[in-house]
Amino acid sequence: MEKPNTIKTILVAIDFTEKTDSATILAVHMARRHNARIILFHNVMNFFIIDRTGRQIVGEDTVNKQHAESENSLEHIKNSLQQSYNDITFIKKIGVDTITNSINKIVEEESVDIVITGTSGKQGLRELILGSSSYQILKGVNCSVLMMPEGCKKYKFEKILVPVRVLEKLREKMEISKLIAEKNKGFISLFGISGDENFTSIRKAFIKIRDSLKGSETEHYASFTVSSDKAVEISNASKDAKFDLIILNYQDEESWKSFFSENFFKQIINNTSVPLLFFKNGDAPAQDPEPTGYDITLPFPG
User: Fold this and answer.
1) Strand order in the sheet with 220-226
2) CA nearest neighbour of 26 among 300, 292, 244, 285
3) How far apart are CA 179 and CA 157, in angstroms?
4) Using CA atoms, how far apart are residues 176 and 151, in angstroms rounded to an integer?
5) How many other C-beta atoms are found inside a 10 Å radius of the C-beta of residue 179?
6) One-character DSSP codes across 117-175
7) I need a surface site. Which of 39, 79, 117, 274 has the fewest CB within 10 A?
8) Are the C-beta atoms of residues 48 and 293 closer than 8 Å to each other?
9) For the chain, which domains are there?
10) What single-letter DSSP state applies at residue 249?
């Protein structure tokens, strides 16, 4: 059964760094526009070893201390936000599993519609190997994900870029796009883009959506281009017209590229400085599960 096109529960991932400040403020603005509640979420990473007796927690006292400190910090943030925005319901949640497993559990229990995560754009060696937490959230969470760049101040989405580049869940994505445009009193710029492959089907889908928008109350513009570098074209379009939000289907491209190359997701994230909403309808399976803590396997004695 499909979920209705509403945003009633927003989860914002908080890691107590500056990159989540903008994400939290964005969650507040969206919650007010959509009359939604906010779940403030933080995940506590466990550290463990594996020996012949099975998994054992390393430094349990340290883990318990970290959990208590996180609980207190999250409670402080919740109380501060509740005092400033008493018209919004705030809930705090702490996860102790992998970050994606923890979020997915809350998504199911609390019927979360969208997860907001901050991105810093700074990729160190560990992030290159294991993947940043925001990228893990994008790949593994079973609902739509909004990635908010650190320091971004775009909290109202008056100019919304909606690319038509793939056919999967296109109608559903357009419905949520129209909802967001309505709540922000904004307009949609429909941007059809296709390479040589699937040109005819993409073009037909673009024309169909463009015609449907003509019969709606949603203010809109439409254009179409042919390019094999879709991420670059979308990034350039967003910069040229200074859009406030880009809404994309959750469907990767060029995932065959080597480990050190950028697929579509990484290209668009690394080359844009505006919020990115990746639409999922909840039936996409989780991908790329990350390890829980650091796994040190001890040799079998003897």
Assistant:
1) 90-95, 37-43, 9-13, 114-119, 144-149, 276-279, 245-249, 159-164, 187-194, 220-226
2) 244
3) 11
4) 25
5) 16
6) EEE-----HHHHHH--HHHHHHHH-SSEEEEEETT----S-SEEEEEE---TTHHHHHH
7) 79
8) yes
9) 9-152 (3.40.50.620), 159-273 (3.40.50.620)
10) E
Q: Nearest to residue 14, comparing CAs of 166, 159, 118?
A: 118
Q: Does residue 163 register a pLDDT over 50? A: yes
Q: Quick one: tokens of 125?
A: 């060696």
For 215, which DSSP code?
Answer: T
pLDDT digits (tens, 9 = 90+) for 129-157: 334 788 899 999 999 999 999 889 999 99
Token pair for 117? 């995560």
CA-wise closest residue to 161 among 135, 181, 138: 181
Are the CB atoms for 207 and 180 separated by under 8 Å?
Answer: no
Q: How does pLDDT run across 217-273, given as a tens digit for each residue? A: 899 999 999 998 999 999 999 988 899 999 999 987 655 444 455 688 888 888 889
> Looking at the chain, how many residues does it have?
302
